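re: ur question from earlier - yeah i can do the single chain one, its not a big deal. heres the input i used so u can compare w yours
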Amino acid sequence: MAIARKPQKTEVRSGVDVDALINKGGSVAQINQPASDGPSPAEKQVALRIPVNMLGSIESRLKKRTVRIPRHTWILEAIAEKLEREEQDQIT
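and the output i got, formated as tokens:
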């Protein structure tokens, strides 16, 4: 068996500044999320502006409830009640 010297490492630079590339960083890879994470096709997001005093009234009523519900749910219930009342007014 022949004995040979340990090969010498030769540094090959490709012209790319590795430190600059590392410091530059990048974005996180996007993962396809299931469709169930977002609003369903039957739902649509709406931005709602509410006057501060009205929002305060809503908050105080929510705090008085024995069973706490989210403000979003309370607003949806209020809209549903208003729609039902208007439908009743159109029938009569």
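The radius of gyration is 32 Å. not sure if urs matches, ping me
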